[in-house]
Design brief:
single chain; alpha+beta; Creatine Amidinohydrolase; four-stranded antiparallel beta sheet
């Protein structure tokens, strides 16, 4: 499938979708605390999404194999869960947890997608460092999203930074193009591979990407839980995940799911 560059009008629609994603994630960040269930977060995300005239992007996505369609508005992944955690009213957040929330919407036919990892209460110092490194990895990648840049350069910078900090990049899941579909071409990995070097992507103005580093405290290997959806680290060590929907422009990259923070503020965190 060919890469679909976006027009000014299409970008504006995606910008509107991105604002809803940001509003919801900001609200969930305020809610996350010991004793709150991931089901509570899910219900609030869906309520806000529908109140703003959008639909939840993940809900009803078909599962692989015998897995049922995804039941939640959000993916809520705790500690060793990397991505695609199923929200539940029976899963309460505890002090010291890290909670990764991934959320997307479709508004008037156009998608927005973002994720963030939240530290709950007093977490271990090394876990806090994992979250900070993952956030910084996203900021590093976005800062390099300029026309003419090869994605392999960005992927190498991300992987190098993560590994220098003593962590590892998940290699089973990657970022992606986004637009009328949640997953569009190109795939944008957070690491360098022989395949990427042979089939590199050169960024162009109008390209919109969902950039989403997933970083493990231990080894990069992951597995799928019995529910058919939740991705967990094989060594059961914690993982963090950050994501933004990003537009490549002739000026600096525009973060379509970042209502208030500028790129420079994101880099500084």
């Amino acid at each position: 499938m060919a890469i679909r560059l976006k027009t000014v009008e299409q970008v504006e629609r995606m910008r509107q979708a991105g604002r809803i994603v940001r509003l919801v994630l900001d609200r969930l960040g305020e809610m996350i605390a010991p004793g709150v269930s991931t089901g509570d977060l899910d219900a609030e995300a869906e309520r806000l999404c529908l109140a703003h005239g959008a639909t939840c992007l993940f809900k009803g996505v078909p599962g692989r194999g015998r897995a049922a369609p995804f039941p939640g508005a959000i993916c809520a992944s705790i500690n060793e869960e990397v991505v695609h955690g199923i929200p539940s009213p029976l899963r309460n957040i505890r002090d010291g947890d890290i909670v990764s929330v991934d959320f997307g919407v479709r508004l008037a036919g156009w998608c927005g997608d973002a994720a963030a990892t939240y530290i709950v209460g007093q977490a271990d110092k090394e876990i806090c460092r994992l979250v900070d490194v993952t956030r910084q990895t996203l900021g590093l990648a976005i800062s390099m999203c300029n026309p003419g840049k090869r994605w392999s350069e960005i992927a190498r910078a991300m992987q190098t930074y993560v590994e220098q900090e003593g962590f590892s990049v998940v290699t089973d899941f990657v970022g992606h193009g986004i637009g009328v579909d949640m997953h569009e071409e190109p795939k944008v990995p957070n690491y360098v591979s022989r395949e990427l070097e042979l089939r590199d992507i050169v960024l162009e103005e109008g390209l919109v990407l969902a950039v989403e580093p997933m970083v493990n405290m231990g080894a990069p290997a992951v597995t799928i839980a019995a529910d058919g959806w939740t991705v967990v680290t094989k060594d059961r060590l914690p993982s963090a995940h950050f994501e933004h929907t990003v537009l490549v422009t002739e000026a600096e990259p525009e973060i379509l799911t970042c209502r208030e923070k500028t790129l420079s503020e994101l880099r500084a965190r």
